[in-house]
Input
Amino acid sequence: MTPTIAVLLIITFVLSTVGLLLLIWSIANNQFSHGQAAARTIFSPGEEGHSEDPARPSDLPFTGDNSEQAAAIEARWTADQSSRTAVLTWLSSSVFWLLLGSFFGLASSIKMHLPEFLAASEFLTFGRVRPVHLNAVTYGWASMAGIGVALFLIPRLFKTSLAGGKYAVLGAFIWNIGLVLGLSAITLGLSDGEEWLEFPWQVDLLFVVGGALCAIPLLLTAANRQVEHLYVTSWYLMAALVWFPILFLIANLPFAFPGASGATVNWWFAHNVLGLWVTPIGIGIAYYMIPKILGRPIISYQLSLIGFWSLALFYSQVGIHHLIGGPIPTWLVTLSIVHSVMMSIPVITVAINHHGTMMGNFGRLKDSPTLRFVWIGALMYTVSSLQGSMEALRSINVITHFTHYTVAHAHLGMYAFLSFILFGAVYFIMPRLTNWEWPWRRLISLHFWLVSAGILIYVVSLTVGGWKQGLALLDAEMPFMDIVRMTLPALQARTVGGALMTLGHLVFAFHFIAMLLHRGAATEQPTLFRPAIKENAQ
Amino acid sequence: MKRALAIMVGAALILLLATLTLVVMPYLQMSAEQVPPDLKPYTEQQQRGRQVYISNGCVYCHSQQPRDPGFAPGDKDRGWGRPSVPGDYAYDEPHLLGTMRTGPDLFNIGARQPSIDWQLMHLYNPRAIIKGSIMPSYPFLFRHVDEPAEGDKVVNIPPPYGPESGNIVATDDALALAEYMLALDHTYPAPTLPKRQPKSDEPKE
Output
């Protein structure tokens, strides 16, 4: 077997090196870049220096200094309206699944320290409630909200109207049917049995169709685009929409991968859902929102492209770090660990751009809800990714593997990073689509503080509890039941954190519905955290 | 459009490369691996029990993959068994390796707790056996009857966990699950593991 391993390793090494050389060559030859000017493509002519914060176009601080600029702003308004039905369909669905997923998450958390809670019914046993939570928030909330925001950004990025929006609406219906069937199947005990892939493969076909229907407007709109350069956000969005169907299809091929090789496919997929699906969407949104709200382009456009390609190259091969110490070939684990550590390259380049652009503008966090959610999300991307790279090292993983520490890390990524960015994006998008301002700024504030306190308690308690659990598991001197008892306070604290987050989601959903129904007083002013703080045009 | 297409094709190619290294090559290598001669295929009942295990999500708290003692000594020291090898899972479809140890590893639970009565009692209410356990109880896998019929498997539950009157009998699902638990016994030697040498070897992993 050894020569085979050597050959495999050499092939992998050569392929990676070739990929890297290609990347360097293409950047050196300007294949992918128009330089810093490209970073300005998201601004209308003359708009740079003006903030675009949640507000209807008529309220925009910047409406153009001359007729040409005014026309560009008008065109953007038209572009926004073109995606209205499609975006609202996807976003409304996502908010529903967020609520449902939160309640199932909370129930799972309670069951961890009160095992008799709702234990009498097979439909509500822990082992079914937990995967319903995961699938509802991943494929319902995160994926649907992500697609919704992407559909909103695509016409803006391409400076044209969304073409084929009705396909995306149809896609949302099919996707929702898939979720109803898939979650029901888990509840009825018909799970496929692999984490992140619980939905029966027959149901999975619906997601493939629903997702493919969203690719139609993307391609049609891209074909009509009115901009020369593709802004980095569109790179991330296009790549994500290419990656997800491929991943989902391969991983769900029924009965193709038995035994231990099934485990490698399982975790290759599961980590790619994070790395190649929700992460590019999240980063892409932040790359759009931060500069738009600050009214200044990202500081280094070149860097953003290096970040994109290195993410593609490294993130796609990290999945097997979920099987460190498992019954699979060592070279495979090592490959994933190396790529996990290499992930610090895209993470640092993205961090330089996101946080570097924020430099000197942190004051805006006080008033802009979108900026506050999005930037904290971007910050948590940096934190959770670097934590993830560390966690993949064998010396750390031997402690954290199989513990609640991993669960805390997963929520830092999926919630504090991704969900925060999605919340921020929804606060940005809704006023533009409903032609209505967020009615109650205090509700936005309440939402922010509830979910922030909730996720803080959640992550801190499980990180500490999980680490202690991991150390204890390595030492057989400590009886297993003592470890269980030791983790109880962390599990209880998690329920407190989860309850706060769920409350926050109720506030958010209420506000969202109020927006759809045009409740509250009509106002001409954008809804900011602090009233009467107006644009300090910089 | 050309540039947009280039990005999408490039992205797809990179993913295909990853598929090659992380899906195809491991599959080729592992499916060629020897199946331990002492590993028995599951019986029909054990397979059904495995399905009950999947339906009720046991995998979310229990792993089935002891690690090498040179890497993580706790696994072997707790009696969870030798490190597992790909061949041990030859009949597992889907795999149930698990990523969480809220409860102990079950790769050798059949060897540690070989009594079917223990297994059934523990499933009915884990706290009847293990004080402070946070495992859910599974009352829906059992029936409460006044008088057990012929052929019923009666499970004796110690007070106060059992019913006040009548008997608890196991359903076919409970029996199948318990049989699957007993089948989780991988104490046979694994031919592909390096022969047990004095620990002079550099640590694996």
The first helix of chain B runs from residue 2 to 31.
